[in-house]
Amino acid sequence: MPRFLTDQNFNNDIVDGMLAGDPSLDIVRTQDCGLAQTPDEKVLEWAAREGRVLLTHDANTMIGYAYDRVRAGLPLPGVVMVRQTTSVAQAIDELLILIGAGTDDDFTDQVRYIPMGP
């Protein structure tokens, strides 16, 4: 099962709901790892070193840095971009489906989007 890191501004209500739905999830927050106020590139570097998929709401910069890592051949355990307009309940449901249906390899070098679909 993938391990996760949440970006600094990721909604903690989503994290709480994910853990309520699956207490076995391994999720840490950037704030808990000494990464608060850390530049995006360094957050992605840390996530790669620790083998953690990043959960983020940051479509403005984080996604571009993730794609830059892939283009450069640098490791990327994955990024899941949860759109700000997604309700907490929908984000929890779709994240748990994505995690439950996927393997680590399904996230590697990928950016996934919530909500899923077109």
List the helices and strands and how they pair.
Blueprint: E1 3-6, H1 12-21, E2 26-29, H2 40-50, E3 52-56, H3 62-71, E4 79-82, H4 88-101, E5 111-114
Parallel strand pairs: 1-2, 1-3, 3-4, 4-5
Q: What features would you highlight for this structure?
A:
118 residues, alpha/beta, 18% strand, Rossmann fold, 5-stranded parallel sheet
Describe the structure in your own words.
The longest helix has 14 residues, at 88-101. The chain has helices at residues 12-21, 40-50, 62-71, 88-101, and strands at 3-6, 26-29, 52-56, 79-82, 111-114. 31% of the residues are buried. It has a five-stranded parallel sheet, with helices on both faces. The mean pLDDT is 94. The protein is an alpha/beta fold. Helix 1 (12-21) crosses helix 4 (88-101). The protein starts with a strand and ends with a strand.
